[in-house]
């Protein structure tokens, strides 16, 4: 799930800090009062290649990742490359196995998921400021 974080909130301060305190981010994320400061903007179910992409392209832990507009554009651009040449899928957007991670084959379901992801990200990308961070919660 991708969340926009309300500016000025404690969660926003932690997400935007130079050194991430993941325990504090996790506590704030699940805090009832602080949860009012985040809005879900994207939800993908069993799109495990997104996990692989952000594991590879960020220094963040797997439970959460902090990304920005550039990261989302990079993900879309990478997905487009894979759709143009499906043989690049294992290299550029590999699947990953895990409990409830879904399909790990490079088949029609995988490529349909890529198309769906591109469509959904493109719907919201113009509403994200260039300097704004998003928080991803990988809730497997």
Mean pLDDT: 85
State the shape.
Answer: globular
Helix count, DSSP H or I runs of 4 or more residues: 6
Number of strands: 4
Radius of gyration: 15 Å
Low-confidence stretches: none
Strand proportion? 5-15%
Spatially, the strands of the biggest sheet line up as 2-1-4-3
Order of helices and strands: EHHEHEHHHE
Whole-Å distance between the termini? 10 Å
Structural class, from helix and strand content?
A: alpha+beta
Q: How does the major sheet shape up? A: 4 strands, antiparallel
DSSP helix fraction? 40-55%
Topology, pairings included?
Elements: E1 2-5, H1 10-15, H2 22-30, E2 38-42, H3 48-57, E3 64-68, H4 69-84, H5 89-92, H6 108-124, E4 133-137
Antiparallel strand pairs: 1-2, 1-4, 3-4
Question: What can be said about this structure in brief?
Answer:
This protein is of the alpha+beta class and 140 residues long.
Task: Name a few traits of the molecule.
140 residues; alpha+beta; 14% strand; globular
Give a description of the structure.
With 140 residues, this protein is α+β, with helices and mostly antiparallel strands. The chain contains 6 helices and 4 strands; from the N terminus they run βααβαβαααβ. It has helices spanning 10-15, 22-30, 48-57, 69-84, 89-92, 108-124; strands at residues 2-5, 38-42, 64-68, 133-137. Strands 2-1-4-3 form a 4-stranded antiparallel β-sheet, sandwiched between helices. Helix 4 (69-84) runs antiparallel to helix 6 (108-124). The longest helix is centred in the last third of the chain and has 17 residues, at 108-124. The mean pLDDT is 85.
